[in-house]
Amino acid sequence: MNDKPVVLIIFGTRPEAIKLFPVVHALRARQDVKVRVLVTGQHRQMLDQVLEIGEIAPDHDLNVMAPDQTLDSLTAKLLTGIGAVMDAEKPARVIVQGDTATAMVGALAAYYRKIPVSHVEAGLRSYNIYQPWPEEVNRKIIGTIADQHFAPTDVSAAALRAEAVPGIGIYVTGNTVIDALHWVTAKIETHPELASGLSEYEARFAGKRIIGVTTHRRENFGEGMENIASALEQIAVREDVAIIFPVHLNPNVRKVMDARLGANSNIAMIEPLDYPHFARLLAISHIMLTDSGGVQEEAPALGKPVLVMRDRTERPEGVTAGTAKLVGTDKDRIISEIFTLLDDEAAYSTMARAHNPFGDGKAAIRIAGLVADACR
Ligand code: UD1
Ligand code: UDP
């Protein structure tokens, strides 16, 4: 009979998988807990890419993804599906990460069963419930339910303390994304073929400075996406730059970007990259232009200036350090900020400093120890 406490780790999207596979590895290396992995399949292809590279075989897969589904439908499916797995597994503790629908509903389902929740990447706040939407509120809901809060930085820990968050503890652990980046970088060193798939673009764009682009925020759908496409069109007119843009699978992103930019020879519109190839894109890019959360954390760690297509961020550390800058989604502002970095060497070198406000690569080990202690 196995009477070790069960820790149920729940995730469903690409960024959660990237940030939780190091935690799964660290907990599996321990003898004192039994690890069970529940993936919701909120993302499908983009989740599966990470499961494969991160060497995770889930114990449960709810496969909830449907094309362009509403937040209502997604949330409803998640709640009944996650609840049923909890009833079967009877975990001693649940781990969720970040701010997605999967994470919020995972915490809620645990609360409905009075199962304690550990929150990885706790305490990020933009102080505007519509930017990012719905992530800011998801994070606050999880913060109210969780009793263990793993804040990546002192800034996020302070935000939780200021809210008088209840629970057994707020811990500054670093962000597990840095663990994931170190892990994948080491893996690429021993298996370079894992990241060699961009060589076609590297050859085609030889001598040009690469701008790596990602976008997918809900609050940027519609006008924001059109503005971003217009800015990219104008930037791509320059002969000294090329754009590599792995396009998120959300149809609200694809329909605009494919129509506007698909035929542009100076823009490589490509499918979402698996994590080793995205790490390679970060390495070869001169500048990252993004509205992603995770990319705001990875780019500073690699000394890549990151222009953030948002008006607010819940990750102010990169901005404070000068390696990230908020540029919003105004077309002219995006173009002028990119051109400044391309044409003003001093401006570029001020931003291009390797800087690691988000962690030292040992967050997952810390988190695994704290979770196991809490299960005793
Ligand atoms: C979700 C998260 C967001 C996170 C982002 C990371 C919520 C509400 N949103 O946004 O916080 O920053 O993931 O990327 O939790 N799709 C596919 N294949 C995939 C993934 C998505 O086809 O592998 C398409 C589907 O049509 C799906 C749609 O994208 O319905 C939207 O997916 P969803 O997870 O609801 O929202 P994201 O925009 O991906
Ligand atoms: N990423 C990836 N392939 C891509 C684009 C991004 O592996 O084509 C990784 C990236 O390195 C980061 C994470 O996905 O770790 C960010 O995910 P996303 O931007 O979808 O979500 P967010 O972080 O904004 O929630």
UniProtKB/TrEMBL annotation:
Identify the enzyme class: isomerase
Which CDD domains did the record assign? Answer: GTB_UDP-GlcNAc_2-Epimerase
- What reaction gets catalysed by this protein? UDP-N-acetyl-alpha-D-glucosamine = UDP-N-acetyl-alpha-D-mannosamine
Q: Which Pfam families match?
A: Epimerase_2 (PF02350)
Q: Name one GO molecular function term.
A: UDP-N-acetylglucosamine 2-epimerase activity
Give the UniProt keywords, A-Z: Isomerase
The EC designation for this entry is: 5.1.3.14
Tell me the ranges covered by the UDP-N-acetylglucosamine 2-epimerase domain, including all copies: 26-370
Q: Where are the transmembrane segments?
A: none
Q: Taxonomically, which superkingdom?
A: Bacteria
**Family to which the UniProt record says this protein belongs:** Belongs to the UDP-N-acetylglucosamine 2-epimerase family.
In Swiss-Prot or TrEMBL terms, this protein is called UDP-N-acetylglucosamine 2-epimerase (non-hydrolyzing)
Q: Which organism is it from?
A: Sphingorhabdus pulchriflava
Taxonomy of the source species: Bacteria, Pseudomonadati, Pseudomonadota, Alphaproteobacteria, Sphingomonadales
